[in-house]
Amino acid sequence: MKKVFLYIMTVMYAAAGIYHFVNPKFYINIMPDCFRVHSLLNITGGVSEIVLAVMLLVESARKPASFLIIAMLVVFLLLIHIPMAIDFYKTDHQELWIAIIRLPLQLVLIWWAWLYTKPLKP
User: Fold this and answer.
1) For the CA atoms of 7, 13, 14, 17, what is the dihedral angle to 10 degrees?
2) Is residue 106 very low, low, confident or very high in pLDDT (cuts 50, 70, 90)?
3) Spatial separation of the C-alpha atoms in residues 70 and 72, rounded to whole Å
4) Any residues with CB less than 8 A from the CB of 34 and at least 6 apart, and which?
5) Could you state, in order of their start, the residue ranges of all structural domains in the chain?
6) Cβ(76)–Cβ(44) below 8 Å
């Protein structure tokens, strides 16, 4: 079952990476204004997610990929998701509930990636 969830996670990150190129506006719109070169960051994020997805499929690269995914998710949590939730709360934004749901979801995604820092059992 752990292998099935590995493939699901792989598809999820590959799809998210591809979506950076299909709909860059989605990602650019949620980047804080203090970040410069939004387009470059979007491309970097998309390529990174695709590369990490491929790395998850390679047994020898799975552990580093998992740790890199965890690092990426922590950075997103601290620099994007928490500030977005705070901003949405302060501005009484209609999508505050989405921003709040994303916070524990990030923790679930971190835990999910953590599962693959250990070898799969045959």
Assistant:
1) 180
2) very high
3) 5
4) none
5) 2-117
6) no
